[in-house]
Specification:
Arc Repressor Mutant, subunit A; single chain; two-stranded parallel ribbon; mainly alpha; 2 domains
């Protein structure tokens, strides 16, 4: 680059905040990338699964817009011709566990007619089952993902009657 041009442009500083600080931009970028890559790959219009979209909003995006672009493109490539929606299963393998871990700890319950102890017991059981499922029944890895000791997880499993799937 010519020095005189460099010094003229060096007067301006342009700060673009990271994508994690621009949550509102994520939806517009998702739409743009899906439309763009559908056109490039000759796909019909597809949508993002609502749960996956929520996971996109809560993910940190350390790779910023390029990472989002790569995830959308990789997911579109993984779609079957008759698929109309991008789901967790279409995500690239390196990022899938990060999204599964974020969403697996959301607990659904109905408080109607149940005591607080019963609600907490059901929530704990659901979180443990989700962790075991996401780690293929491996108790050590499930305990690590939950931030507790293996022995503590085994105790809670016995107490709640949860069995590890093999």
């Amino acid at each position: 680059m010519r020095e005189d041009i460099f010094y003229r442009f060096a007067v301006f500083t342009l700060f673009i905040p990271p994508l994690r600080e621009r949550i509102k931009d994520i939806e517009e970028l998702i739409t743009h990338f899906i439309n763009n890559f559908c056109r490039v790959y000759g796909q019909v219009s597809v949508k993002l699964n609502p749960e996956l979209k929520q996971a996109f909003f809560s993910y940190d995006w350390p790779g910023n817009v390029r990472e989002l672009q790569h995830v959308i493109e990789s997911s579109l490539v993984m779609l079957n011709p008759d698929d109309k929606e991008i789901t967790f299963e279409h995500l690239p393998s390196y990022i899938r566990p990060k999204f599964k871990q974020q969403t697996s700890h959301s607990v659904k319950y109905t408080a109607e007619g149940k005591s607080l102890n019963q609600i907490l017991k059901n929530a704990e059981m659901q979180v443990i089952e989700d962790a075991l499922r996401s780690h293929g029944g491996n108790i050590t890895r499930a305990a690590k993902s939950l931030g507790i000791l293996r022995q503590n997880l085994q105790y809670r499993m016995r107490k709640l009657g949860v069995k590890a799937e093999q």
